[in-house]
Structures are given as structure tokens and as C-alpha cells.
Amino acid sequence: MNNSPVVNLLQQLEPFSNLSEDSLQKMSSTMDVVYFPQDSKFNIQFSENPEENASLYFVIKGRIAEFDEEGRQIALYLHHTFFGESVLLKKIKQSHYEVKEEAIAYRLHGDDFMEWVKLPELANYFFNSITDKLEQMHKSRQMASSSEALMGLVVDAPIKALNVLSSSATVKEAIDQMATTQVDACLVSHDMAGQQTATDVMSAYGIVTAMDLLRAISSESDALNQPVSSFTRAPVISVHHHDYLFNALLKMTRYYVNRLVIRDDKGPVAMLYQKDLMGHFATQSGLGMLTLESVSSLEEIEKVLQQVDDLIVNLNTRGVKTHYIAKLATEVYRKVFQKVFELLSPDAALYEGCFIVMGSEGRAEQVMKTDQDNAFILPDIDADTLKRIRPFAERMTETLIQLGFPKCLGNVMVCNPMWFQPLTEFKKQLKSWMDAQDEASFMNLSIFIDAEGVFGDETLLNDCKQLVFDWANTYPQFLRHFAKPVLQFETPVNFFGRLVLEKQDQQDLLDLKKGGIFAIVHGVRCLALEFGIPQANTHWRIKALMEKGFFSEEFGYELGETLNFFNTLRLENMISLKQAGTSEQVFTNKQNKIQVTHLSTLQQDLLKDAFDVVKRFKKMLNQHYKLDALL
Amino acid sequence: MNRFKSLKHILVRQWQQYRLKEFEFDFLFDPVPEDEYVCFDCETTGLNPKKDKILTLSAVRIKGNNVLAGESLDLVVQHSGQIHEDSIKVHQLRHLDVQGGVDEIEAMRRFLYFIGSRPLVGYYLEFDIELVNRLIKPWLGIALPNPQIEVSELFYDYQLKSQYHSPYMPNIDLSFERILEQLALPNLGQHNAKNDAMMTALAFLKLKSLLARE
Question: H/E element holding A413?
Fold first, then answer.
């Protein structure tokens, strides 16, 4: 029998897609269909009248907006979404809706829903861990965007051709294939005659990337003639071609992959790369990333920066993960640095050096232009040359301040001679910091460990970093002291599970940086140092720690998502401060402090869960480095 | 004019109630529940209302803006005659598909209990009603007394209203597909009595809301 459209819809909808077809048939046979006239308003709440009682609605067509008690829109539901579960699960008493565009929805009665939700396939989703809840919030926020680029479908993205090889193909054939198609990954189909189940069209495939093959060749002498199937990995992370681009992006974050296989109902069809996707978003958002290549004056750079600011606000309201916004912004800022450098006609000696960004900029976690943290590692030059080029450093800092990159309060900028030194001197300085073990030294070290080269000779930077890694390896005691500040700030959740707030200007404020972000970032930084992880970005470090088995997969995801959540709140706070036109001073004071009363109940709940993750992480570090013994 | 019409209507209803042979079905004359309707559709052996018979009958209640599809009535009617070859092609009901159904009188009994006194909504309702009446008249002595709402008529009114500035009589296509298309309603499934009833119900709800706005 042909499936009804409602079964088809449910099969594509998390978490209902986890149910068997029989269950879905049964569920759909009890559903009603509801028509919502344009502009009508309604509430979801429990009621004696079965037609008005709370239910779960699946939107087939149209747009329905959800509002909180204060009348602020919190979500917009479109085709292939459902709503009403928060009332049904008694998370909130009542929710309010307005029909933005005439809508038709299937309706699963509340009583029926409560029966179905007892199944483990659904219970996991509806009574879930923080990661999933956050994911869900992102989804609802994603609904809040009517905007084209992110709500576009995967098929519309700049997708790449797909290489599919049979399991008997050799590594050489795979490499030839990649070279001809210019796509650096291949799918390899397994021989599973007759076993292929319709439930997962991707189960018959493994994936192999150019990197995997390079590794294979370097470790095995006759790898070229071996069957490529012995180097493949599974499962293949894929996305349906009718899914939203946004979900493709989410999947990439979730699984830390930078390519996705696109599938249709029958099997894989194409490849989607993260850089193409980001490029697609960037052009769709009206930002010409390429214009930076051709700018010839500071005024033009200023214009581009203004565009970036607008883009950040834009992307945030569309629900793009902060992690990605940061990546995009960082990319642009780094190009700006290089351009400024070139425009200031530097001395030849400077071209031999390495300009680095550090701290949050190095970690690529900076979103709005916060303080500059940068340095120049110079090649070993004589004192005269150094003296001659120093004025350039001052000009560079000055120009960047003019362009709106605020001055660093700790004076971590190239204009500071301490951060503008030849390699040998720079290394001496690092050594003295590691020896001194006082607060200021540790601060400088923390900033430096997150360094990334922007332009110039990166071997200089790697040389310095290696010094620190070696040191941490030789003196384990150093790491224990270095990690200590993780416990410095209390997590702002009290014994009774309530948020602890500070009063300031009659507002209840919560410092996200002290309470959460710092502990995660610094903790992960220490671990990265211990395990010799070269990446600077916290998410990449977490991923590396998961691969090394230090974090369980589940905890790693939770930690990453938690950091994302804090950063998103922080970004929103910054945006609203900026929009309110607050003075520089107030902005600096309040940029990390959010007003808890402005958060929705869901957000407040999530915040508590998030701090719980921070608490667990602190506990873990405490045990790992035996920090209690130090205090 | 309208008052005469409703007066006539009341008289007819009373006359019918008087003629009703089975007292059991007196509820057909109860007051109409507010904002409730029943939409129904039949698949038949052919297109001649004098000769052809009902194969399947589906009805859904409408309450407010809800189409209560979860509690629909879906009947397969047993019969011994031949199904016309052309109609097999349309609704894909073969002889074996309609075996094991209920007999005609039982089907009508369940149908009447389902609809109660609610107004009936349908697309070319006249045809379906005539088939039903042919079955219940000899048995109960009356035709269906329920008010009837013709969706194609509502659609015509709506089109006429939205195009009235035109000096010409508009040429309005009243095919079911065209109506759904014009109303931008998604098709919820394949062509069968239950789905057609549901789609007609949706078309009715949309037209009702559109006409109320004018």
C-alpha cells in the first residue's frame, strides 16, 4: 500500500523518523487535519473540550509564529516542523500563536501523543540531554528566520560531483578518480548483495578522503595496488537533498566534518563542502568577500568591516551557530590585518617575520571586534634594524584602532616591544614566563598558546610553540599550576540549582565569561597543552581530545555545545548593547554580563544545564590535575 | 425572498419528520450543532444516479476549523452487481476490494448515526445524496433532511466576488483539481473516498474563511 503523505512527512522528521512504518501508520490514522485561516490567533493549553485541548501539530503548509508571555516572537513554524510539545510535556502552561500565512496542519491529540512519547525512540528526544535541547533551540531559532540563504535547500547549494567506486577498485584508481574530478573524497560501495535495506540508503557505503589515502601510502609500501575499500570509514555522514542548508551546517558542526554526502531517497548523489557552503552564505548575505582582495585604501577596508558587522547581526538572527559566525568573521579580520600591513608599506625585514593573532582571535572565537591581541615574531635581526622598524609597529596598531579594533587593555599589541621581538628574544621571554609562574606570566602564556599565524613565516611561530609544548611535557608540575585558575571563579549556580546573580545598576547580571566560558576555554587549553594538540580553536581542541579518548564522545559534544550556547548569549548581549548605543566604557564593562530576566524560560533552563556541564568539567580537571592539593 | 425560502425549508423539514417511518432516526431533525459539518464522498459503480450503486463511502466531521480525520467513517458496501470498467480505472476498486463490506442498509444506518443533524458538505453533493436517498427512501420514507452545502457553488461565488469588476461573466473552471489548485491546497493523498472527503472539507473551510472576510 502506498504511504499517506502524513506518514511520508513523519518519516522525514526527527524523532518520528525513528519509529517503524507500522507505528507511523497507526499514529497517522488517529490524526486530524486543521485549517488555520490567515491572521487568526490561538493558544495551546489543556482544556476539557477535546477540540481545544493541547495537541501536537505538524505543519503541512503555511507559517505559524509562536509568542512568549510578553508577546515576543520566539519561533516560526514552517512546512516539516511540529509544535505544541512544550505544553504537552508541561514545560510551559500555555503558548500563543499567530498564523502568519494560512496554514494546514496535522494534529496528533494530546492523549495520543502522551502514549506515543513513552516509546524510547521518542522519549530520548523529548526528555533529552542538553546537547539535543540546544540543538532543538537552534532549530526553533532557525525557524525564526524567513531568510533565503539558510532556509534554502541543499540541492540549491554549490554542490560537487560525487565519486563512487566499487569495492574492488584500487587505491590508485581512487586517486586518479579524485584527480580527474577535482573532488578530494570517494564513496566506496560494499558488496552487500540482497542485504540492502531501504531504511538507510547510506549503509552500503564507506568514505575515503585524500588525506586517508595519503596516510595509507605513507604507512604501507604497496598501498597503491590494494583495494581502496580497506581504508574507508563508516558511517558516512550525509544529508538529504531536500533538507535545509542550515541542517547541513549543523551536521558539519555536530560531526566535525567539512564535507557531507548528499543523498536522495535512493542513494548518494553529490558532495557538499563546508567552504563552498560558507561562500554561498556569504554571497547570499550580500557580502563580497572578494572585495577585500582588491581594496587599495583604508577607507575601503572600513566599508568592508561595516558590512561584516551587519552580517554578524544578520547571521545571528538567522540562528547560525556562533562558532560559524566567528569563523567567518575571523577569516575577514585576518585578511584585513594582512591588507593593512601591506598598505603601510613595511620594511623588507618585516616580510620575513610572522604576524600572529592570539587569545580569542587566535582561537577564532571572536565575533564582534573585541580587543586586539596581536604580535610580531621577527627573524633574528640586529639591534639597529629592530630600532629602525619599530615605528612601523606603532603605526600598525594605531591604524587598527582607527579601523575599530579596540585597544587591548593588557597592551598585547605589536606596538608593545614585548610583543614585537626577534625569535631568540621571544623564546627567552616565553621561558622566563614559564619559570616565573606568577599570574601575569600565566596570563601572557595563555594568550600566546592560542596564537595562530596570520601571514609571514609560520615556522617562527611553530618554533616558539614547540618550546612551550616541550616544557609542559618535561615539567608536569607546571601544567598543574597553569590549570589552577580554572577553579578561580565559582560556577554561578547555587546548591539549590538556582542561578546566582550579581546586582548592578538595578539589573540582575550574570557574568558568562567568569562563570562559564573561561573555565571551558582555559581547561581545554591546558589539556591541549598536555596532549600536544596544535590547534588553537577550542572546538577543534575538544575534537582532538575526543579522538585521543580523553573526552567521551558524549561529553565532548556537550562541552562544545555548551560553549556555543554561552558564546551565543554573549554575542546577543553585545549586539543589543551596540544597538542601544552604549558608551565604550559601559560596553567593556557589560559585554560579558547578561541580564537573566531578559532570557526566556527555556533559555534560563538551558543556562542551568549549561553551568552543570561546566561544573562537571571542573570536577574532571580537578581530579586530573589534582588541583585540590594545590589550593 | 430569503425568508420564504427558510419558511419553505422549515415546512419541508416538518413534513419529512412527520413521514419518518423509523422513529429511531428522529435525531436527524435535532437542532444543528454549532459550527459542525460533515463532509462525505462516495465511490460508485458508475455515474448514473438512477442505476449505479455506492461502493465505498467516507465521511469526516468538521468542527470549527478541525477536520476530524482521525474519527472518519469509512464504509465498504457489499453488493452483487457489476462495477463499470471505467469507474474501476478511476478509483481502482476492483470486485475483490469491495467484498467483505457491510450491506447497504447497515451502511446507511451507520452513516445516519455519523452525520446526525449536521449540514452535509460535498463536491457535486447532489449525486452522492441521490444515491443515499435511493437507499433510505423506501426504508425510512424520507430523503436526507440535512442542509446541504455545495463546495463548487461556494467556489463559484468566491470567484465571482473576486472578479466582479470584470464586465464579462467569468469562465470559472469547477473541476475538483482546479478548485484545489486555485485555493492552493496541498493534496494529502491518493484519489479515494476518504481523501476526497478530507480535501473537500479543507476546501470548504478555506472558502468559508475567505467568504467571511469579504
Answer: none
- Over range A542-557, report the average pLDDT: 91
Which residues in chain B have Cβ-Cβ distances shorter than 8 Å to A32? 66-71
Touching check for B88 and chain A: CB below 8 Å?
no
Question: Is A340 found in the same domain as A275?
Answer: no
Rounded to the nearest angstrom, the minimum Cα separation between B31 and chain A is 20
Whether residues A403 and A453 share a domain: the answer is yes
Where in the sequence is the domain holding A159, given as residue range(s)?
154-280
Mapping DSSP to helix (H, G, I), strand (E, B) and coil, where does residue A101 land?
strand
> Are residues B67 and A61, on separate chains, in Cβ contact within 8 Å?
no
- How are strands ordered across the β-sheet holding A374-378? A420-422, A374-378, A354-357, A452-456
CA distance A470 to A248: 39
Q: Where are the beta strands (DSSP E) in A68-181?
A: 73-77, 82-83, 95-109, 164-166
Candidate from A2, A31, A102 with C-beta closest to B70: A31
Q: What is the pLDDT of residues A567-595, one digit of tens each?
A: 888 888 887 887 777 777 777 777 788 87
Contact between chains at A29 and B70 (C-beta distance less than 8 A): yes
pLDDT tens string A183-208: 888 999 876 655 545 457 788 888 99
Containing A38, the helix (H) or strand (E) segment is none
Query: Which residue is it, cell 541542517?
Result: A247
Which own/partner pairs from A303-310 qualify as long-range (CB within 8 Å, at least 24 positions apart)?
A304/A332, A304/A336, A305/A332, A305/A336, A305/A369, A305/A403, A305/A404, A308/A332, A308/A333, A309/A368, A309/A369
Between residues B68 and B24, the one the model is more confident about: B68
In single-letter form, the type of residue at position A20 comes to S
Q: Which residue numbers of A have CB closer than 8 Å to B's CBs?
A: 2, 4-6, 29-38, 40, 51, 60-61, 102, 104, 107, 109
Average pLDDT, rounded, for chain A: 81
Report, as an integer, the average pLDDT of B23-45: 88
pLDDT of A285 above 70: no
Q: Decide: A573 and A599 in contact? Cβ < 8 Å.
A: no
Residue A258's φ and ψ, nearest 5 degrees, are: -110, 10
Give me the pLDDT at residue A498, please: 67
**CATH value of B2-213 in 2.40.50.100, 3.30.420.10, 3.65.10.10, 3.20.20.510:** 3.30.420.10
CATH code assigned at A236 = 3.10.580.10
- What local confidence, expressed as pLDDT, does residue A149 receive? 55
Do A82 and B43 touch, CB atoms closer than 8 A?
Answer: no
